[in-house]
Design goal:
Length: 376
């Protein structure tokens, strides 16, 4: 039985899309676009998992389902994507992740996501879900939600699982090094649960039977947890430093001059953000938002990039190309720096340099052209 459906997330997307209609800096527009992608990806992942959960247990009176549960207790917050509870008071706390290219889990349990070009580390969903369980476990205990038998509270059991999209790729390390059996695709979760019941020991089976509660009791218990839901509304204007009054200047990629419609924004245009505390990095030349890995690259290649502290990848190519052209021009000026002592031909600086360090080999001649060097 479904006690709480998934909260409607379209409102967040609507707010973000409305903000894009305002006159924004390039940096704000970039951050909003990134937020839209994250929210959309999260919605798809949760809908994918919710479909399989509702299909398998949505009509069963032996199981209760809560989607999108946010609880607060003693200053701590838990955002639980899905909560599945059965009549044995077993609570399956499910965290949903939707990675487009897949995820790799190493020997230390670290999660790395492939973005199409390289791997980048993310917070461990396993540890994240364990924190959610600790908050939920404390709430259930402090509020005395668990049913009682002979005056004693029936202990609840918590299980943590990370549900991945059915199309995701999961690269796992050896089970002996780090156990990842609780990271599973959403469409395989039902089979895993059935297998755990089939392979349960006699002691575990008797323990479950001793704890079993009635269908109405289960419904009341699940409902009491669902009633703790504390929804929250995100102020995206404040998050992205957008003032209530739209800025009066043209947007990042628009100008009032039709001939300059596609001109890239200058640094002053993109850096005059309304939020003075904005610490995101921006390109020194064009002002667009720059990722941390690009910033690190610039720090270690400052000389190569002409002294600029931070450059986006597009501006890096321009600067490197300009540096190469200057170098070529410099070489041309110093091209002819000597005359062959045998035939009188002009020679460049590289040949002169070579002759200086190979005078004995060249029979004592100070400067020889390549042809005369062979003859000598």
């Amino acid at each position: 039985m479904i006690i709480k459906d998934k909260a409607e997330s379209s409102d967040s997307l609507t707010q973000l899309k409305e903000l894009k209609k305002l006159q924004l800096t390039a940096q704000q527009r970039f951050l909003i676009d990134r937020e839209i992608k994250m929210v959309s990806s999260g919605i798809r992942g949760e809908e994918n998992s919710a479909y399989f959960l509702d299909f398998e247990w949505g009509t069963s009176e032996n199981w209760g389902i809560i989607h999108d549960l946010r609880v607060e207790h003693k200053g701590r917050v838990a955002q639980i994507d899905h909560l599945l509870i059965n009549r044995y008071l077993e609570l399956y706390v499910l965290e949903t992740k939707n990675f487009s290219y897949g995820v790799k889990i190493n020997d230390l349990g670290e999660f790395n996501v492939w973005n199409g070009k390289s791997y980048s580390g993310i917070e461990s969903p396993i540890e994240q879900n364990h924190r959610h369980i600790r908050v939920l476990e404390t709430i259930v205990k402090d509020k005395g939600f668990t049913p009682k038998r002979l005056g004693l509270a029936i202990p609840a059991t918590f299980h943590s699982f990370i549900l991945m999209s059915s199309k995701s790729r999961i690269d796992r390390t050896s089970v002996k090094k780090f156990d990842t059996k609780n990271v599973i695709k959403a469409d395989q979760f039902k089979a895993l649960i059935d297998k755990s019941f089939d392979q349960a020991s006699v002691g575990t089976t008797f323990g479950r039977v001793a704890k079993i509660i009635g269908k109405d009791t289960l419904k009341d218990f699940v409902q009491s947890i669902a009633d703790l839901h504390c929804p929250i509304t995100i102020d995206y204007r404040a998050k992205f430093g957008i003032t209530k009054k739209p800025v009066s200047r043209p947007m990042a990629n628009e100008t009032t001059d039709p001939d300059q419609k596609y001109k890239r924004p200058t640094k002053p245009e993109v850096n005059r953000a309304e939020n003075a505390n904005d610490t995101d990095s921006a390109c020194d030349k064009c002002g667009v938002h720059v990722e941390s890995k690009v910033v690190n690259y610039c720090r270690f290649n400052r000389v190569k990039l002409g002294g600029h502290k931070i450059l986006c990848q597009s501006c890096q190519k321009q600067v490197v190309k300009t540096q190469a052209v200057k170098s070529e021009k410099s070489d041309v000026k110093l091209e002819i720096t000597g005359v062959c002592e045998k035939c009188g031909a002009d020679v460049n600086s590289k040949v002169v340099y070579y002759c200086r360090f190979n005078r004995k080999k060249l029979g004592g001649f100070k400067v020889l052209c390549p042809t005369c060097q062979k003859s000598v």
